[in-house]
Target: Co-chaperone DjlA N-terminal domain-containing protein
Amino acid sequence: MLAKLKQFLTSHSQAITPEEKARQLDLAAVSLLLEVVFADETLSEEEAELLPQLMIKALSLTQAEAEVLIDEAKKIQGDSISLYEFTKEINEQCDVEQKQKLILAMWKLAYADGQLCQYEDQIIRRTADLLYLRHSELIQMRNLAMDSQA
Model:
């Protein structure tokens, strides 16, 4: 499915509207958030509640739009083979501040259930690296997320 999506996007890259481009970016961001949620192979109640809230706030969506986007991203995320597929889209369209906000949201999801799994930590660190964020920015976002949990 992802190969078909890539083929479609490549063949229609000149015809992509700004709305479609924004949708691709939203899907990439939500897919990365889902990577964190499913890193420990469990979806806690806290994570399930926090994910749509983060999306509503960050992407200015309604609850229904967030749910649809989550379902769509689950399909794409499940077929993905690497984080690069998602970070490439984000690198093309986002500035450093937006990337930091995404990493902050990922940390918040990782800490939502009260414990940080090593796999969650690894995914967030790899994502930050692929987004060309400095280690100090990664740690700053982690500390902000931890402070918001307290």
About this structure: The chain has a mean pLDDT of 86. Helices lie at 2-11, 18-37, 45-59, 63-79, 84-93, 96-111, 118-130, 135-149. The chain has eight helices and no strands.
